[in-house]
Design brief:
Length: about 150
C-alpha cells in the first residue's frame, strides 16, 4: 500500500529492521527486503500469508499495511478441454464433421481422436460409412460431467 510507506513506518514504530522482522516472521531477509523496499527491487505484491505474518509481527492489522485485492474469475481457467461449456457460441442444428467440431470446441482433431480412442462410444459420435459425424448437443452434454469432476 502506498509504495510501502505504512509498512516502513510501522517497522520504525516497532523499532524493527529487515533482519529482525525476518527473524520474527520466519520469512527470509530477501523477501522482507523486497516487500518493504523502495528501490528497483521493491515489489508491490506479496502473498496473503506473507502479509499476515508481517502484520502479526508488527502487531498491526493487515489492512493498515497492505491493500487487499479481490478478483472474480469470469470463466474457467481449466486447461482440460472444458472451456467450450462456458462458451457463448450457439450450437448448430446439424451434424458436424471432425474439423468443424474441432473448431467449435477450440480443440485439435488429434484431441478428438484421442478422446475416441479412450472411449469408442464417445457421446455424439455417429459413423456414416467410414466417415465420422458428431452431434454437437450430445458432445457438449457428454463433456459436462467432466467439467463438474475437474
Amino acid at each position: 500500500m502506498d509504495k510501502g510507506v505504512p509498512l516502513r513506518a510501522a517497522m520504525a514504530a516497532a523499532g524493527l529492521d529487515i533482519p529482525t522482522l525476518a527473524a520474527k516472521t520466519g520469512l527470509s531477509k530477501t523477501l522482507i527486503g523486497f516487500t518493504v523496499g523502495k528501490g528497483r527491487s521493491a515489489r508491490e505484491n506479496c502473498s496473503d500469508r506473507t502479509a499476515e505474518l508481517i502484520a502479526k509481527a508488527l502487531e498491526v492489522e493487515v489492512d493498515a499495511l497492505f491493500e487487499v485485492v479481490n478478483f472474480t474469475l469470469t470463466e474457467s481457467t481449466s486447461t482440460r478441454g472444458t472451456r467450450i461449456l462456458a462458451s457463448r457460441s450457439p450450437l448448430p442444428d446439424r451434424l458436424m464433421d471432425q474439423q468443424e467440431l474441432a473448431r467449435f470446441l477450440k480443440k485439435s482433431s488429434t484431441w478428438i481422436d484421442r478422446q475416441i480412442r479412450m472411449n469408442p462410444e464417445w457421446p455424439g459420435l455417429i459413423y456414416a460409412g467410414r466417415a465420422r459425424r458428431f452431434d454437437p448437443y450430445a458432445v457438449v452434454d457428454g463433456l459436462r460431467p467432466e467439467r463438474t469432476s475437474a
